[in-house]
Amino acid sequence: MDFTLEDPSGLKLHFPVNPTEVNIRRDKSFETITIIQGGELDVPQGVKVKEIAFSSFFPSQYDASYCKYQPLPNPQTAMNQLNTWMEKREPLRLIITGTDVNVLVMLSAHNSSFKGGEPGDVYFDVTFRTWRDYKVRTLAERSGASDGEARPDIKPVSATYTVKSGDSLWAIAKMNLGSGSRWRDIYEMNRALIGDNPDVIQVGQELVMP
């Protein structure tokens, strides 16, 4: 099993000592709303970004019993590289061979420490968050002016209502628009379908609603 980080330029950091364990955290996000006289209710919102964390160390001296390769990277140089990557906004590729972990990540946190009696060794904890790609569209792209792209029709699609037995325009307006007095709005939008008499509508007619 090998643990490797690689940036978009191809620069790689191969961790020389395998961690004893890897923690992968998956959470679902919820929005909590309060219902009057009903208490709190959790509404699921989706899956949060996955976190991958592990701990190990960069040894200053090679030891075949735990080191994966040689020559070893300088411990301080390796930690500086992690610092540089954490400050950047570009994702890294984390690969853990022998597992399904081969994902783009952001280095979200790392801690380092030194232990007495082990001069030059640097111990660390790292946390990665899986990367979700996103695109910020420019105003030109949104208006359709980029590359001759046609501007999308952003008008809302009108709802429809299918006439049932016993319906009238007044009743339909009252039930769907909150006021029976809005029957004329429905009639004006459907005059060609209804005809000259707004009091006569047919079962099965599909009316476009305001």
TrEMBL record:
The cross-references to PROSITE patterns, in alphabetical order and at most eight, read: LYSM
Residue span(s) of domain LysM: 159-209
Please name the Pfam families in this protein's record. Answer: LysM
CDD domains, per this entry? LysM
Q: Which InterPro entries match?
A: Bact_Kbp, LysM, LysM_dom_sf
Family annotation (SUPFAM superfamilies): LysM domain (SSF54106)
Q: Which PANTHER family match?
A: PHAGE-LIKE ELEMENT PBSX PROTEIN XKDP (PTHR34700:SF4), POTASSIUM BINDING PROTEIN KBP (PTHR34700)
Please identify the protein, giving its name as recorded: LysM peptidoglycan-binding domain-containing protein
UniProt source species: Paenibacillus plantarum
